Amino acid sequence: MPHDTAKTRLTSQRGELVAQLAELGASETGDLGGEVDFGEGFADAAAATAERTELLGIIDALVKRLAEVDAALARITEGTYGRCANCGREIGAARLEHRPESVHCIDCKAANAAV
After folding, report:
1. Does residue 57 share a domain with residue 30?
2. For a Cys staple, 30 with which of 6, 42, 63, 103, CB 3.0–4.6 Å?
3. Whose CA is closest to 70, among 5, 8, 10, 24?
């Protein structure tokens, strides 16, 4: 995938992730704003805790994905985008097309998953 195309897709993904975080009441760093209300009723304490735990899990996943996208954008700027961080070989175009923030080639990713 040409770097201009990757940069455009990654920038778009970044905007979507930031918007999703904002919809959940969180900043780009995952900090919750004061407007998030989980309810204060004692009878609903377990439900509120479960809801908060689920929300924090979703926010954590979005923040992690945002960091991956930011790292990919930095690699484009540095001129290292599209190279495997492990073996240094070129990451396949199909992999970058599917997941432009990829850090590893498919072989290294598969080897790491087996460990």
Report:
1. yes
2. 63
3. 10
**Which residue is associated with the tokens 């992999």?**
95
Q: Residue 92: exposed, middle, or buried by beta-carbon count in 10 A (0-12, 13-18, 19+)?
A: middle
Dihedral over Cα of 112, 92, 95, 78: its sign: positive
Same domain, 15 and 60: yes
Q: Is 110 in the same domain as 55? A: no
Domain count, the chain: 2
Please state the pTM of the whole predicted model. Answer: 0.81
Other Cβ atoms within 10 Å of 14 Cβ, number? 18
Residue pair 25/67 in contact (Cβ under 8 Å)? The answer is no
* Nearest Cα residue to 108 out of 99, 97, 91, 67: 91
pLDDT given at position 4: 86
Report the alpha-carbon distance of residue 27 to residue 24 in Å, rounded: 9
3-state DSSP assignment of residue 113: helix
